[in-house]
């Protein structure tokens, strides 16, 4: 019998070392779970409750629109609203949106400080600059105004107001639990995810929309609670409407892979230009409305009624523009419209959305962008299939891809919009065509606007979020909170302060570091005097000095905190 080789002491020591490391890691994990587990579970429970509340809010919002449309237009089926509108006398078609505009204008005049409807852009701003909080009073007023707008003939979408309404819910919860900024943003993401999921019956897209558009990062710590809330919102939708997709597509959506892909590349570019035209039309119409209101002295409460009159006039001839427009979108996706109808309806929808938004009537741009995209894709597909009948697939496949491409470019959300299109239609077999069109449209549109409709809205208000945290973090710090007053151990001497004041170099205490940094750059001074200006002929009141090194330290700390949150 052969003698067995002795066991290697080195191998045995290595195995024991690995076992000890594993046991140590397990014990450490159990200690962390005992210490942090309950609080984490509590947070997830709060996320679940927010998801349910946001889902119910989305459901009530949708039911509210249907109820008002049922009263105003005697509509039994809101998806076929235009059929009921055509049965009315022309003067009712005009008067109903005017009445809705008057009521909307009164609500916004009484309960907001600027007569403006709050929407997704304000939620993005709240996430970035306000610790995940939004205005509650103005938010509730905006939700009421949007329900009335969409119920009485406004041509906009229901998803934007629902997102802001969900953000109001999360803001209230943040106030109750005294949440810090990171927790506030996470709860805001939960509310947004649930609202989008409940609106579209799209849990995957809802979660990714909150991360991609509102939080604008994909931090791992935020993913689990957002998914929980998104699923809760979807369950609310399915309990009310069943497990059905929003649109039903024909069964002949097939893609001749290699030959037809160049056509979808071209559709993506066309869709990007259409999306830019839609956004620019809204902004141009808003500027025109502001100019007319200023020149005529029109009270702000009357502006929505004037827009309602214009919409009513268009709806007499083209009732398809009224409301959310899912009926027309469905007709485009199923190929029920002719080529000239698709083109005319797309142009009129762009005009109607611009009038609604410029008239401060309420609503969002998500549903309109889906409708315009489906009509664009159908028109493109009609031309493509007639020019190349032997190598082209179904026109409705182009409508599906166009719907995703225009919406993704408007929202600046290629990932979540692609998934929303899939979940809205249940068609996962044509994903390549949709992805190709979406990628080209967002790449083109983002170069022609500030990345998306929402970020461009904020840029027009002077809120610079499009370039990322490095562009907007400075605006979060007030000079008075960073300056050194006279009691500081290393305060500036009064003599040096007066020298700079005599040169005209000073800053107000309520200014931000965003205002201060250009002054440092131009003058290359170590500090800037912080003063409040007195009456004419009186010297300014010196409060202290803002040192450049202190401003840079605050900025660096904020950048580090943002990076830590995004990668946690």
Automatic annotation (TrEMBL):
A GO CC annotation given for this chain: chloride channel complex
Subcellular location per the Swiss-Prot or TrEMBL entry: Membrane
Membrane topology: Multi-pass membrane protein
Gene3D superfamilies listed in its UniProt record: Clc chloride channel (1.10.3080.10)
Principal location: membrane
InterPro entries according to UniProt: Cl-channel_core, ClC, ClC-type_chloride_channel
GO molecular function: chloride channel activity
Segments traversing the membrane: 41-61, 90-108, 191-211, 218-241, 261-283, 304-326, 338-358, 370-391, 397-422
Keywords on record: Chloride, Chloride channel, Ion channel, Ion transport, Membrane, Transmembrane, Transmembrane helix, Transport
Keyword Transmembrane: yes
Name of the molecule in the record: Chloride channel protein, CIC family
Organism: Litoreibacter janthinus
């Amino acid at each position: 019998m052969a003698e067995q080789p002795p066991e290697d002491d080195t191998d045995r020591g290595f195995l024991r070392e690995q076992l000890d490391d594993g046991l140590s890691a397990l014990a450490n994990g159990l200690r962390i779970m005992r210490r942090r587990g309950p609080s984490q579970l509590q947070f997830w429970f709060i996320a679940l409750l927010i998801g349910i509340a946001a889902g119910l809010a989305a459901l009530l919002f949708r039911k509210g629109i249907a109820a008002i449309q049922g009263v105003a237009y005697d509509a039994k089926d809101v998806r076929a609203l235009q059929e009921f509108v055509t049965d009315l006398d022309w003067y009712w078609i005009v008067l109903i949106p005017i009445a809705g505009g008057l009521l909307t204008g009164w609500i916004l005049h009484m309960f907001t400080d600027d007569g403006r409807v709050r929407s997704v852009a304000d939620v993005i701003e709240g996430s970035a600059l306000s610790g995940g909080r939004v205005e509650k009073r103005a938010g509730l007023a905006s939700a009421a105004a949007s329900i009335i707008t969409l119920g009485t003939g406004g041509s906009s979408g229901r998803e934007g107001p629902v997102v802001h309404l969900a953000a109001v819910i999360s803001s209230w919860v943040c106030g109750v639990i005294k949440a810090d900024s990171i927790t506030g943003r996470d709860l805001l993401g939960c509310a947004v995810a649930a609202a989008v999921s409940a609106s579209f019956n799209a849990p995957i897209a809802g979660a990714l929309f909150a991360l991609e558009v509102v939080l604008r990062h994909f931090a791992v710590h935020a993913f689990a609670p957002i998914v929980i809330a998104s699923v809760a919102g979807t369950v609310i939708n399915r309990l009310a409407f069943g497990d059905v997709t929003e649109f039903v597509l024909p069964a002949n959506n097939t893609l001749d892979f290699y030959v037809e892909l160049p056509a979808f590349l071209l559709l993506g570019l066309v869709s990007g230009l259409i999306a830019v035209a839609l956004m620019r039309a809204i902004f141009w119409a808003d500027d025109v409305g502001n100019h007319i209101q200023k020149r005529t002295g029109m009270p702000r409460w009357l502006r929505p009624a004037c827009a309602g009159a214009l919409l009513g006039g268009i709806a007499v001839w083209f009732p398809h523009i009224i409301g959310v427009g899912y009926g027309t979108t469905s007709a485009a996706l199923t190929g029920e419209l002719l080529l000239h109808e698709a083109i005319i309806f797309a142009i009129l929808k762009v005009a109607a959305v611009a009038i609604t938004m410029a008239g401060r009537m309420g609503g969002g741009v998500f549903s309109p962008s889906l409708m315009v995209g489906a009509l664009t894709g159908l028109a493109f597909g009609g031309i493509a299939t007639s020019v190349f009948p032997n190598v082209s697939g179904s026109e409705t496949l182009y409508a599906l891809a166009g719907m995703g491409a225009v919406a993704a470019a408007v929202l600046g959300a290629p990932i979540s919009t692609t998934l929303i299109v899939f979940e809205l239609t249940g068609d996962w077999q044509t994903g390549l065509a949709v992805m190709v069109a979406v990628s080209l449209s967002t790449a083109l549109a983002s170069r022609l606007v500030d990345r998306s409709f929402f970020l461009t809205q904020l840029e027009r208000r002077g809120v610079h979020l499009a370039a990322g945290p490095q562009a907007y973090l400075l605006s979060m710090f007030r000079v008075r909170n960073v300056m050194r007053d006279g009691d500081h151990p290393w305060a500036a001497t009064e003599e040096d302060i007066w020298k700079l004041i005599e040169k005209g170099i000073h800053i107000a205490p309520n200014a931000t570091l965003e205002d201060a940094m250009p002054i440092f750059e131009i003058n290359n001074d170590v500090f800037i005097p912080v003063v409040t200006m007195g009456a004419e002929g009186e010297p300014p009141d010196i409060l202290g000095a803002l040192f450049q090194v202190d401003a840079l330290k605050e900025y660096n700390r904020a950048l580090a905190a943002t990076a830590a949150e995004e990668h946690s």
